[in-house]
């Protein structure tokens, strides 16, 4: 049998610093209408999809920083998107900067929500892997201050939605295998990932030419190794002078890319995703219960950084296999 979810990757081109939420919501609505016209049940939008990617700047005034955050969701300007979602019967995944007051304390997260076809929020995820740096580093062509502006979230969950098991991750999360495996262990069948990825990575410019390759590599690997669909959606193009990759795509549990955007602007790429295609991978090659050997994996949780031998050389597998720990 088949369990089809018709999905649109709702890629955005640049969002200017002075673009209002109302203007951005109009762009999101236009993409949702196009997705609906293609028979989609779900549209996935990028990370921080309501504003420009503000962590590219060192901003000292907290009032100015907080202008990029949402205190309520839906809020007065985003409500229109929820209403269209309910009207069209198209659910969505939306990334935004969340300002939350919990137990009297203010928290700031890089967040995404999953909204069902009736316009109700069914899941919320707060980005775990915050890349970049926390202090102003003027040597960089542009900053990447997510470690300054956001707190890491508690972890990766899944939700029963769209006829299957759906999970979320955000941008840098997609580069870490733990992201997919933690959701894989919860039976995830579709992982929704928005991203804002500059072509240029100041600490490692030699990686720049590989930015699109790395984007696809990690999502294809995550999909195949966990028998899940993966939908990756870019905020693309030259945004306030910084060129960000496109490469939005929909990856099947086989690891094959079944749909992808070809521009760096507002664009949808659509696929009819049969969630039952996950089964043959989850029941054979990646039948975790039959094949995994957790007794061999404890370093993954015990150790944050990789340990190096006294002379600075990496720990040899021989050392680990003998159980001796340097
Ligand atoms: N952006 C980038 C990402 O992980 C980055 C940061 C770029 C890390 C290039 C490594 C190399 O896709 C966000 N927002 O995480």
Question: Key terms for this structure?
Answer:
six-stranded mixed β-sheet, single chain, 326 residues, disordered C terminus, 14 strands, 24% helix, globular, alpha/beta, binds D-[(amino)carbonyl]phenylalanine, Nitrilase/N-carbamoyl-D-aminoacid amidohydrolase
Explain this structure to me?
- With 326 residues, the protein is α/β, with parallel strands linked by helices.
- It has one domain (4-322): Carbon-nitrogen hydrolase (Nitrilase/N-carbamoyl-D-aminoacid amidohydrolase, 4-Layer Sandwich).
- It is built from 10 helices and 14 strands.
- A 6-stranded mixed sheet has the order 5-4-3-2-1-14. It has a 6-stranded mixed sheet with strand order 6-7-8-9-12-13, with helices on one face.
- The model is unreliable at 316-324 (pLDDT under 50).
- It binds D-[(amino)carbonyl]phenylalanine.
- Residues 47, 131, 171-172, 175, 195-198, 201 line the site of D-[(amino)carbonyl]phenylalanine.
In a few lines, what is going on in this structure?
The protein is 24% helix and 26% strand. The protein has 10 helices and 14 strands.
**Spatial strand arrangement across the major sheet:** 5-4-3-2-1-14
Name of the CATH class: Alpha Beta
Give the strand content.
25-35%
Q: H/E element string?
A: EHEHHEEEHEEHEHEEEEEEHHHH
The overall pLDDT, averaged over residues, is 96
Ligands bound to this protein structure: D-[(amino)carbonyl]phenylalanine
Number of continuous helical runs: 10
Question: Which shape, going by the Cα principal axes?
Answer: globular
Radius of gyration: 20 Å
Q: Pairing-aware structural class of the strands and helices? A: alpha/beta
First-residue to last-residue Cα separation: 51 Å
In CATH, the homologous superfamily goes by the name: Carbon-nitrogen hydrolase
**Major beta sheet, specifics?**
6 strands, mixed
Give the number of DSSP strands: 14
Can you name the CATH architecture? 4-Layer Sandwich
| Low-confidence region ranges | 316-324
Helix content: 10-25%
């Amino acid at each position: 049998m088949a369990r089809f979810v018709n999905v649109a990757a709702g890629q955005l081109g640049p969002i200017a610093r002075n673009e209002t939420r109302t203007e951005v919501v109009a762009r999101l609505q236009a993409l949702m209408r196009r997705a609906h016209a293609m028979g989609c049940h779900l549209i996935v939008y990028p990370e921080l999809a309501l504003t420009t990617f503000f962590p590219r700047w060192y901003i000292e005034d907290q009032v100015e920083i907080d202008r990029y955050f949402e205190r309520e969701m839906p809020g007065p300007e985003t409500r229109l998107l929820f209403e269209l979602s309910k009207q069209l019967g198209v659910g969505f995944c939306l990334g935004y900067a969340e300002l939350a007051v919990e137990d009297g304390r203010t928290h700031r997260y890089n967040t995404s929500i999953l909204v069902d076809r009736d316009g109700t929020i069914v899941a919320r995820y707060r980005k775990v892997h915050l890349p970049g740096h926390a202090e102003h580093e003027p040597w960089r062509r542009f900053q990447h201050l997510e470690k300054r502006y956001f707190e890491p979230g508690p972890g990766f969950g899944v939700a029963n939605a769209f006829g299957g098991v759906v999970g979320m991750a955000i941008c840098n999360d997609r580069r870490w295998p733990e992201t997919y495996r933690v959701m894989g262990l919860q039976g995830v069948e579709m992982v929704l990932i928005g991203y804002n990825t500059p072509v240029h990575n100041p600490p490692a410019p030699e990686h720049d030419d590989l930015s699109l390759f790395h984007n696809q590599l990690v999502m294809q690997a995550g999909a195949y190794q966990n028998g899940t669909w993966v939908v990756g959606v870019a905020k693309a193009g030259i945004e306030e002078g910084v060129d960000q990759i496109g490469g939005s795509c929909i990856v099947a549990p086989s690891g094959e890319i079944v749909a992808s955007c070809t521009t760096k602007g507002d664009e949808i790429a659509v696929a009819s995703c049969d969630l039952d295609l996950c089964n043959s991978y989850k029941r054979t090659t990646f039948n975790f219960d039959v094949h995994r050997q957790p007794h061999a994996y404890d370093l993954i949780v015990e150790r944050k950084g990789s340990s190096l031998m006294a002379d600075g050389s990496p720990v040899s597998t021989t050392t680990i296999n003998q159980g001796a720990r340097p």
